[in-house]
Amino acid sequence: MKGNLEKRVLKAKAHHLVLFPPLDREDRLILVENLTEGSQWSMNFGVMLGCSVIIAGLGLLQDSVAVIIGAMLVAPMMTPLIGGGLALVHGNHRLLRQALGAILKGMVMSLILGVLLRWVTPGQELTLQVSLRGAPNLLDLAIAFFAGVAAGYAVARPKLSGALPGVAISVALVPPLAASGIALGSGDWVVSLGAMLLFATNMVAIALGSAMVFRLHGITTQEKRLGSRLTMKRIMIGMGAALILMTAPLAFHFADQLRLGQAKPESFTLSEEMWFKLHNRLDQEEGIDFLTGVRASSERPEDVIIVLSASRPVPGELILELDEMIDRGIANDIKVKFNIVKQGSVKGLADAIGDDEEISEPVVNE
Predict the structure, then answer these.
(1) How far apart are CA 91 and CA 102, in angstroms?
(2) More confident site: 4 or 10
């Protein structure tokens, strides 16, 4: 038995590139059976997908990352994509049609639910989480491809099936669909099309990534089914060409985000200790509230922005006290910028500084 397996491996390596240990016949049958069952549109598939879309949509509307992650774990959309990848290398027309049917029905259902969620929450602007799905870039393409590779490998190796939830979290399938429906319900075609581009990118990249892994496990179309092999090769070439075409808008978005500085975090929160110090101090001031405080960027950790809400003029002495508190708590000679919102204003700052040359005058925007 062992000798026969070694002969098969050597034969496979002689004709095809096999990077991973080939699957025996029993494992292949189990793999095809599991993916065929999971790629089929059914009541269970529809219910789980519907719940996932609603959870993701509510998380998007609330700007809640935790809820969106939970929706990714409920979504069953990953299985038909992996099933499509297996069908491409195995020459399984039935599985391919089944997977495509489940994906298309899932897309339509998700868009309708997204639009309905938007209609039952009128007057609410698109949140940051919705807008982010409308501007995918090249990094999303790379994430989707390697997620497909990881998912295909985990499915082919049953002992690694516990990694599938992590793969589902790493690549978003349902949130872009829900975001596209929500944006469509708001009449924002740009965000809606951008979110659909993200889903299409994820879909094609996952299918090709998983197909590559199955191919490297030695799974191929049988020699006697040359017609199926040719058809599947053409489909894969078409999908590869589509993925290359998608890189144009993805690269454009990425370049635009780099130009605007949106490809990296715009601000970083202050330490918890400093946050509470500022809160406790401003709790003593009637009519003046602490809204937020952030560092300008990771490259300029010395720059701090403090936002205050005031219904009365802010004393200059208070500005200097807060400036010194931040200076002592973070670093010496730190640059602090104060933004005053509402009808607040600062009075007496110049008098508070006086002739002391060692004190730099803080920047105050009202």
Answers:
(1) 18
(2) 4
